[in-house]
Design brief:
The protein is mainly α. The protein has a domain of 97 residues: Orthogonal Bundle (Arc Repressor Mutant, subunit A), CATH 1.10.10.10. Helices cover 65% and strands 9% of the residues. It is globular and about 60 Å long. It starts with a strand and ends in a 10-residue tail after the last helix.
């Protein structure tokens, strides 16, 4: 069936098949959003990292301290798995944090043969100072935005939290892999 509009010929979509053009357009829009979001978040992350991390602290140390605050004492092996580093790297990380007074090794109460790494009051104080600094830096820049722009950011927070949860649970990658391996894309997992 051919339909004419203002001297433009278009072929009407076949009702029995899904509209491939629309699906491709949707995938392209999703890809564009993913690229834009990734770029913006990477730049924001880099900016905040430079603004809030104390000079003597690495990003990996900051993340590990946050993990210990959020999840409680951890064995070095478990902490390594959570942070995505090898155990020898995590041991060195814990040694450096222990030297700064941010963590302490203690006996695991559930298995007295094991040792866990625990956040100290100094470690918690460093994390709280970083949180305060991050809030102050972001607040300063949020003041420049219009009310509508701030509302837009606030509206995006639940979706961003969901992305974080999916990534933390590994579902984001697994779901994406299931969806893309059924199609044409081949997922590649990279490690930092």
């Amino acid at each position: 069936m051919i339909i004419l509009y203002s001297s433009t010929m278009q072929i009407a979509p076949d009702k029995r098949r899904p509209d491939k053009g629309r699906a491709e357009q949707h995938r392209a829009e999703q890809r564009g959003l993913a690229e834009d979001l990734g770029s913006v978040l990477a730049r924001l992350y880099g900016f905040l990292r430079r603004s809030i991390l104390p000079e003597q602290m690495s990003l990996t140390q900051a993340l590990a301290l946050g993990t210990l605050r959020d999840l409680g004492p951890q064995r070095v092996t478990d902490l390594a798995g959570i942070e995505g580093v090898r155990q020898p790297t995590c041991t060195a990380l814990v040694n450096a944090m222990e030297a700064q007074g941010w963590v302490v090794r203690t006996v695991d109460e559930s298995d007295r043969r094991a040792v866990v790494v625990e956040l100290t009051s100094d470690g918690l104080a460093v994390l709280e100072a970083m949180t305060e600094t991050r809030a102050a830096v972001l607040e300063r820049y949020l003041q420049v935005l219009s009310e509508g722009e701030r509302e837009g950011l606030a509206a995006a927070i639940p979706s961003l939290k969901k992305l974080i949860e999916l990534g933390a649970e590994g579902e984001g990658l697994e779901t994406w892999m299931r969806a893309t391996t059924a199609g044409h894309a081949r997922p590649v997992r990279t490690q930092d």
